[in-house]
Amino acid sequence: MPQSLLPDAHCHLDSIPQFQKGGGKDGKAAYDAAFCAGLASKMLLITSGYSHESNIANSVLSQQYKNVYCCLGISPQHAQQYSHESLLHGKWEDFIKKRKGAKLVAIGEVGLDYKWGKTEEEKTRQKACFLRMIGLSSKMGLPLVIHSRDAESACLDTLQSEGAKKFMMHCFGGSAEEAKRAIGLGGIISIPPIRSKERKKVIKEAGIENLVVETDAPYIGKLPTDASKSISMVAEHLGIGEARAAEAALENTKKFFSIG
Ligand SMILES: [Zn+2]
Question: What CATH class has 6-256?
């Protein structure tokens, strides 16, 4: 793998119109095979599922492109819509276990989201799914990719009590103090291309050895190439060159996801 690949530790290729064979979600045919092949030749892409349907789509994409790997999981926003019965006996879990030839590198995105989960019932479903996913990650020997919104402490409490030691805080929006705690538990921090005062503190707290960069494309960055904006921000806040920041982000991504 050439050193110059630009890494994106978390994106959703299945939601990007150019990757959608059936056309964009707005119904316009936007599939662009040359664009997809071009992107996958110059980037290391970790595409993430968040529902059973998107797990299927992303596992197919990971088989199609050389530098595309996938995470499979059920996000808290989806988990809260599942019935207790389908949480415990869902076909989604069998699919992840079988992986069907996917280049599966982590269980994710999973976690807790109290911005979307307001009621006790929703929070209980999110937690039940999260626990199930942590169990799956330990059974399968895979790290976890954590989605946490307005629930950083609750996520870290759960990871700690379950003994999860290898996890990535995707699109981390917590405080520098919470970043420190996550790293102390064995986690790494993923930086999206959005600037904020707290994120600057988080980057300084984590240091280059505990950071990766991501876009969450198409939801935060429009395309995975926007990872270069995260790299510029990390380089600026740590006072290091962009080439050094890019190299470290790539190495950290490969190491975390065990990509040789
Ligand atoms: Zn995401």
Answer: alpha beta
